UniProtKB/TrEMBL annotation:
CDD domains: TM_PBP2
Keywords: Cell membrane, Membrane, Transmembrane, Transmembrane helix, Transport
Species, as recorded: Streptomyces anandii
InterPro entries referenced in this protein's UniProt entry, alphabetically: MetI-like, MetI-like_sf
Designated name of the protein: Carbohydrate ABC transporter permease
Location in or out of the cell: Cell membrane
ABC transmembrane type-1 domain ranges (all copies): 75-264
Domain of life: Bacteria
Entry similarity comment: Belongs to the binding-protein-dependent transport system permease family.
Primary location class: membrane
Lineage of origin: Bacteria, Bacillati, Actinomycetota, Actinomycetes, Kitasatosporales
Membrane-crossing segments per the record: 15-35, 74-98, 110-131, 143-160, 198-218, 243-264
Membrane topology note: Multi-pass membrane protein
């Protein structure tokens, strides 16, 4: 028998939904402004009052953006770099997390402590030695210099370790008795049980690499190799700033992330919660 909702409970729900709806609307304001600003010229954005409705300069801004930075090419550059980095880093994180969770070896605790300690090292401290290392290898202005130095993701290793801690050792022993090797056991038995955490890690890793700015700015010198954040940075000059181009480029660069997050929203939330609650 269903109980009727009390007036107090109904009022609380109404207030909560109203607050959430207001918060959602406020969070959409920056995106709306980027969409509006991308359809006006830079001069029109400084009119008083500023425009709040779309204008007629969208095609002009698109052409200007393509002419200035080759936006289509840099989108493909960012997409390729982010996909390669996401796949390799997530695979490496899963393998390291599995090793720390299920293998018993001397120094495992020390190694785990080192992984935790690396999370407290700011990126700025690593820039100079990493730049010298890439220079000595002759990798300046190359994609591998952008991707390889940060494949070992301490956050991803810890997240995957937490997801593997409660995996039954008996299943691993059964797979080994049946003749499955370590790699086959890992890919066919262990990985399928950690799909939510792995999906969450891949979404997080893709977003982090897509938005990465400082390291690609240092490594990439050729405009045809720029990523989206680096290319948009070139629109900001000492005497002129293409605000309309920046707004339109930022909006176009945000759309793939929004689509990715909306497509994997459940896996992202479930993976983070599952990794946090296990162990």
């Amino acid at each position: 028998m269903n109980r009727r909702t009390s007036p107090v409970t109904a009022l609380r729900r109404t207030v909560v939904y109203a607050v959430l709806a207001a918060g959602a609307l406020v969070s959409l304001i920056p995106f709306y402004w980027m969409a509006v600003a991308g359809t006006h010229t830079s001069d029109e954005l400084f009119h008083s009052p500023p425009p709040f409705l779309p204008g007629g300069a969208l095609l002009h801004n698109l052409e200007s953006l393509q002419h200035s930075v080759g936006f289509g090419r840099v989108l493909l550059n960012s997409l390729g770099i982010a996909l390669v980095y996401t796949v390799l880093s997530s695979l490496l994180s899963a393998m390291c997390g599995y090793g720390l969770a299920k293998y018993r070896f001397r120094g495992r605790g020390v190694l785990l402590g080192v992984v935790l300690a690396t999370m407290m090292i700011p990126l700025q401290v690593l820039l100079v030695p990493l730049f010298q290392m890439m220079s000595s290898l002759g990798w300046i202005d190359s994609y591998q210099a952008v991707v390889l130095p940060f494949l070992a993701n301490s956050f991803g290793i810890l997240l995957m370790r937490q997801s593997f801690l409660d995996f039954p050792d008996e299943i691993l022993e059964s797979a080994r008795i049946d003749g499955a090797g370590e790699l086959r056991t890992f890919y066919l038995v262990v990985i399928p049980t950690a799909r939510p955490q792995l999906a969450a890690l891949m979404v997080f890793t893709f977003m982090a690499q897509w938005n990465s700015f400082i390291w690609p700015l240092l490594m990439l010198n050729t405009q045809d190799k720029y990523t989206v954040p680096v290319a948009l940075n070139t629109l900001t000059g000492l005497t002129h700033v293409d605000y309309a181009g920046l707004m339109l480029g930022s909006l176009l660069a945000t759309l793939p992330l929004l689509a990715l997050f909306l497509a994997f929203q459940r896996q992202f939330v479930a993976g983070l919660l599952g990794g946090a609650l296990k162990g």
